[in-house]
Amino acid sequence: MALINEESTDRYDLREFRPQTDDQGAPDATTRAWMDAVGVGFHEPPESDEGAARMASHFIADQETFLGVYVNRPVVGSVDETWPAGTFTWFPKDLSWGDGSAVRTQAVSAVTVRPTERRRGILRRMMMHALERGVEEGYAVASLTASEGTIYRRFGFGCAIRERAVHVRRDRALPFLAPTTGTVVMVTTQWLADGVGPEVFARFHARTPGSMVRNTGTWPIVFGEFGPDGQKAKDVRAAVHRPEGSDEVDGYVTWRVVEGKTGEDTRVEIVDLVYTSDAAYLSLWEFLLSIDLNDVVVYKRSRLDDPIVAALADARSYDVDHEEDHVWLRVLDVAAVLESRPYAADGSLTIAVTDSLGHASGTYRLDVREARGTVTRLADDADVAGSDIALDVADLGALLIGSVSPVTLAAAGLLRAADPAVAVLLRAMLTPPRTPHGITYF
Ligand SMILES: CC(=O)SCCNC(=O)CCNC(=O)[C@H](O)C(C)(C)COP(=O)(O)OP(=O)(O)OC[C@H]1O[C@@H](n2cnc3c(N)ncnc32)[C@H](O)[C@@H]1OP(=O)(O)O
User: Does Transferase show up as a keyword for this record (predicted)?
Assistant: First the structure.
């Protein structure tokens, strides 16, 4: 397809800035224009003034850095006079290794380019700038959740964790094959939001490989304070689980019931399911499946190895509707990220990393003793032929959480192992403390 607008090297101006609000809490003109442009990119209606003020306060709380790409000499009357043609943001976000430790990632979001300016290199320019700034700011890894599956590999991102949208038919699900323990009670969403909910999430995050901390703006949505449309969500309900004989909440669920039209299922849709024990996860599912006057329980953030399948009276009541990529990781500093994660087995191997953008290129030696890794940079270039393992930086990102196996990547032709046993060793070393589960989009 021909470019809609003529190519011109000085057509654009890239600007980096922090979101700002005035005395009344309203976003300043530059911030508001950036937000409106993001809305255009994602086909969302403009925010009300109240919604825009709330969102701007969240961006500031999350320490976001905005990029805007502006059209120089805009045509009179065009939106280019106020809105950037390209938008991009990054901010710090911890990724949990599941043993209580985490690595700070450069989280990337709100990537949009206006349709009239697409495929003219605006995304590439913003990404190059952001990753260079990420290196300057000391990030070992960048992260994102993607709108499409084929955009980000070219920039060195690999899909490190996948997720499933599932539904469970109620009529064949219960009783579970093994009895559950503890108690489930309904609570108000306000009570959860006031402290218990975020506190339970913090414990989930610490013990769950692949969990990412939440944006400030995620909390009001999971507790029904606002729906995705910015209006109060009156239909969100909540329940918590406590272990037998304990006052401490070890899991919660929020959900809404969506009534089916004639001939359609009525659905219990899980909004947020957060657990700090297997018992809590199981009991909350059992509770949801026991709610009368509906046909299915729907969950969009299921992990690949879901224990509910084994627990159900009839495992065929569980169906996967869709599976796709969840969190993508882009290694910026190989030594720092590999030294930040725990390991499940000792071992030593050399790894050659190719990176078309250069940030992670090199040959490295990873030595793991007593669950901690030490990385030595052996060469600036990737010694592909002389190393135990050779792979692209995107595939190193894919391996990081331990959800994707090096043996699988070798079978896919993406990882070269001098000896197949080395891929098996690396798989054992990278085994996460428990099944990775990401439940947070950003
Ligand atoms: C983390 C997030 O925010 S995910 C959200 C991403 N945004 C969206 O999906 C909103 C709708 N889409 C858009 O706004 C734009 O089309 C974008 C942001 C996806 C792409 O912006 P553009 O400025 O057109 O991309 P740009 O011209 O810089 O292209 C860079 C490269 O990506 C490729 N590319 C661009 N868009 C896509 C796409 N949708 N799918 C696959 N490849 C793509 C280009 O072919 C180009 O490849 P090359 O450099 O290897 O030759």
Answer: yes
